[in-house]
Structure formats: structure tokens, C-alpha cells
Amino acid sequence: MEKIAIISDIHGNMPALEAVHNDIDARGIQRVFCLGDLAGKGPNPAETVDEIREWCEVVIKGNWDYYLSEQSGHEVLMWHQNRLGVERLNYLKKLPIYQEFYISGRLLRLCHASPNDLFHRVYLSTEKNQRLQLFEATPTLKAEADVVGYGDIHGAHIDHFEGKTIFNVGSVGNPLDISQASYGIIEGNLNDKQCGPFTISLVRVPYNIELAVAQAELTNMPEKQDYIDELRTGIYRGLKHKL
């Protein structure tokens, strides 16, 4: 049986990333996969990209990684791009958009939002036919997935329907459900097509939110107060309730 930690949506928040890193190390988990959105929103884009590159075995592209590496002209993007530099932006641009493999007889697919579309956003309330799109066959293995894990929406959950399982690992650095860092752990027989025991668990890690706020306060980054408010409340900017 092998354990893999799955993190997502760090968004330039180093105190949160360090807390999650410490928790994963304390559990003795050696393999870590990242589902994207390494930078953007938070004050430490270069530091988070560097740590993820060194630490994570698999890194998948998120929508913010796409924005930062392939778009220009917007004030928010420019602030983060200037701190990332050309080499890191090239790294983000080359990231794959999904990873899939067998574990305990199940084809498990990992992506940021969707395996074929970085902007296909799926919530628990999304219609079933749109959620099922995440399981459709990809060119890689040409088979429907049994389990899909994703990030993007910053809200952790596990759901079962149509004989399949979907789970969201939430956000390390910008959670919008509970104001604690979130990540997932999967456990099973890796690269084994024979059915066996399989576990998905979600982990919440308290971290020093006020340190993250203080680091943001030291910068002149755009939309700083929106970011700070989200860290403290777990409520998406512009909304009066949690997602």
C-alpha cells in the first residue's frame, strides 16, 4: 500500500504551504502531487513555485498557472509575473493538465479543474452530466476514469455517484470553505489493475493566517485587501456567504 499526498491551489501563500509540508512530513508520506495554481493572489509567487518544483513528484497546470504564463497586460498578472521571472513562467507554461494511473484496480485521474478544460468548473451543485465529463476517456489511456481528484474551487469534498468517486482536495493557500489549509491523501496499490483496498481522506491543517496577512501587507500587490479578507473569512471576494 502506498500513500500519496495531493495538494492544490497554493496561490503564493508560504505560511500555509509550510504548514502543510510539515504535516505531510510528520505522516511519513514521501510522494506528493500538486494539482496547480502554484502562484497568483498571494505575495510569494516565486517562493511557492520553487518549493513545489523541488518537493512534488507530479505538478499539474491550473488556471492561474495558465494566466500567468500565457496572458499579459493585466495589473494583477504583471505584478506576479515580474516576481516569477521568465524561467519560472516557462516552467508553468509546460505543465501538463492531467495525470492518470491505476491504483487498487481503479483508474484515477487528477486534474486542476477538468482533464480537457482548465475552465470547466465543477461544484457539488453542478449538474450531474457536467460532473460526469471529468470521467470521460482521455487520449492517454482511452478509458473512463473510476475516480477523479481535482482542485480549482477551493472547497474540499468527497462524493460518490453513478458508481464513480469524485473528490476535491480544497486549497492549501486560499481555502474558501474553512479557514484552514486543506489537502488530500490517497492510499492503495499503485499501478495495480487488480481491485484492492483504497482510501481517500481529506486533511485540514491550521496555519498562521496573521503571518500570511503580514507578508501580504508588506507588498504593494494589487487586490491585496481582497486576498487578506479571503484568508481571514474563507469567503470568496464579493460574496456574502461561503461557496
Automatic annotation (TrEMBL):
Residues 3-187 form the Calcineurin-like phosphoesterase domain. One of its GO terms (cellular component) is cytoplasm. It comes from Desulfosporosinus orientis (strain ATCC 19365 / DSM 765 / NCIMB 8382 / VKM B-1628 / Singapore I). This is Putative phosphoesterase. Belongs to the metallophosphoesterase superfamily. YfcE family. Signal peptide: none annotated. The lineage of its organism: Bacteria, Bacillati, Bacillota, Clostridia, Eubacteriales. PANTHER family: BLL5683 PROTEIN, METALLOPHOSPHOESTERASE. SUPFAM superfamilies: Metallo-dependent phosphatases. One of its GO terms (molecular function) is phosphatase activity.
